[in-house]
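Input/output pair, single chain:
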Amino acid sequence: MRACSLGPAGKVSFLFAAALTVLGATGASTGVGEQQSGCQPYDSTWIGELSEYQALASDTDSITAVGRTLFHLPQLPKDSVSLVSDSATCMRAVLAYGRNLDVPDTITPRRVILVRFGPTRYVVGDPHVTAGEFTIDMVFDSSFTTVLATFAN
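Output:
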C-alpha cells in the first residue's frame, strides 16, 4: 500500500484492485536476493501501510466494511492493529507466505511486513513479490493457517 490516506475514491480503487487480484492470477515475481528471513525493519513505508490497515480495521463506512469482508478481517479499534517484529512470529509468517505462493517456496530467504489484526488475524506481505505495481499480501489466522491466499495491496 502507498503511504497516504485513502478517500472514498481511493478505497474503491484499492478494493477493486484487490478484488481483481483475488479473482485473477497472482503472477508473482520474486527477486529477493541473498538475505536472512524475517520481518522488514520499520521505515516510513511500513508506518504508512500500518495506517492504511488501521483505517481498514476501524473505519465504519460501507466501502471499508466490504473490504474487511473481502479480506476476512475483523472490525477492530485502530489500536488493535499493529506491526509485528518478534523473530519467531516473523519466521512463521515467512514460511506460511512461501507455502501459499503460486509456486510454493519456503527456501528463498524473504523479509516480510507483518501486521497483526487483533488476536485472530495476520496480514503478511513481501515487498519483492508483486503483481504489477502491487505487493501480494496474504491473510492468516493466529496459527498461520491460510484465510485468504493472496490479494494485491
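The two ends are 5 Å apart (CA to CA). Helices lie at 8-23, 44-58, 62-71, 87-99.
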